[in-house]
Design a protein that fits this description.
Low-confidence stretches: none
Structural class: alpha+beta
Organism: Macroventuria anomochaeta
Oligomer: single chain
Order of helices and strands: HHHEEEEEEHEE
Protein name: Mitochondrial import inner membrane translocase, subunit Tim21
Helix content: 25-40%
Radius of gyration: 17 Å
Length: 139
């Protein structure tokens, strides 16, 4: 029972770190700006922190979870991306307010040395714009 709970909550759940990592990686692979700096989307690899052990193949995703005094949950994680043209660091910050069912991106940014930061969260927020009625956004 414990193993099943762990697998569901840490791997298969839509709110797991693994699901958010996979979504962020897919977003990066599909973005034309990232493809221009890193290479074709199918060739972009994403991985976590390097281990101190040279024998270890497992690279964990550095992440923190916290809940602020208003009950808002914050999930921050960092990982690395690499393609045939370059490599970069991804910083993600997800927020889930008490009234929300799922996390949403407050920050999803790719930093490639020598280039401007690519802000993917801004693009994702533009895709989910509230409808405008009588000149005001009703969300």
């Amino acid at each position: 029972g414990g193993v099943t709970y762990f697998l569901f909550s840490d791997v298969f759940s839509p709110n797991s770190k693994t699901a958010h990592f996979n979504h962020a990686t897919d977003t990066i692979r599909q973005d034309p700006r990232c493809q221009k700096l890193l290479g074709e989307g199918s060739q972009i690899a994403a991985f976590g922190e390097a281990s101190w052990s040279r024998w270890a193949r497992n690279r964990y995703i550095s992440s923190t979870e916290e809940t602020d005094k208003w009950g808002t949950e914050h999930l921050r994680f960092r990982f690395y991306v690499e393609g045939p043209l370059g490599q970069g660091v991804v910083n993600a910050h997800l927020v889930k307010k008490p009234s929300m069912d799922a996390f949403e991106y407050a920050e999803l940014a790719v930093d490639v040395k020598g280039h401007r930061r690519i802000d993917l969260a801004a693009k994702e927020k533009q895709d989910h714009v509230a409808p405008k009625i009588f000149g005001a956004r009703w969300w």
